[in-house]
Amino acid sequence: MHWGFPPTIGGVETHLTMLMPEQVRMGYKVSLLTATCEGCEIYDEYKGAKIMRAPSMDLNWLNKRGLIGIEEDFEKAALEFIDKNKPDIIHTHNMNYFSKPHAKTLEQLSKDKGIPLVLTAHNAWDD
């Protein structure tokens, strides 16, 4: 899971475009929950990896909407993603930034579903 994926440009987004196809090549089933974006399908595929996009992962939408009450929207999207893809592990990228409700919701879903949760923090910011 990550906040963005191409056509959104960024370091983690580029990292995912390289990491996911390699994991697929190695025989892993790979799925990504990421943000919606204009012109992108909600359900898509990228080099063998399944992509699901949700508004609750879109930082621009969240900036306009605000975070109050976002837990329900995000939990619904995350549960759909988890139930559909049945992951052995949830690997998040920078989910510790921008929204504490997202991180807390994932932490609780991980515990409830018994799925290990891994966070890769790609940045080290003072705040």
List the helices and strands and how they pair.
Blueprint: H1 11-25, E1 31-35, E2 43-46, E3 49-54, H2 59-65, H3 70-85, E4 90-93, H4 100-113, E5 117-120
Parallel strand pairs: 1-3, 4-5
Antiparallel strand pairs: 2-3
Using only CA atoms, what is the Rg? 14 Å
Multimeric status of the protein:
single chain
Question: Using DSSP, what is the number of strands?
Answer: 5
- So how many helices? 4
Strand content: 15-25%
* Structural shape: globular
Can you tell me the residue ranges where pLDDT is under 50 for at least 5 consecutive residues?
none
Strand order of the largest sheet: 1-3-2
**Biggest β-sheet: count, sense, barrel?**
3 strands, mixed
**Which class of secondary structure composition applies to the elements?**
alpha/beta
In round numbers, the mean pLDDT is 90
Order of helices and strands: HEEEHHEHE
Fraction in helix: 40-55%
* Distance between the first and last residues' Cα: 22 Å
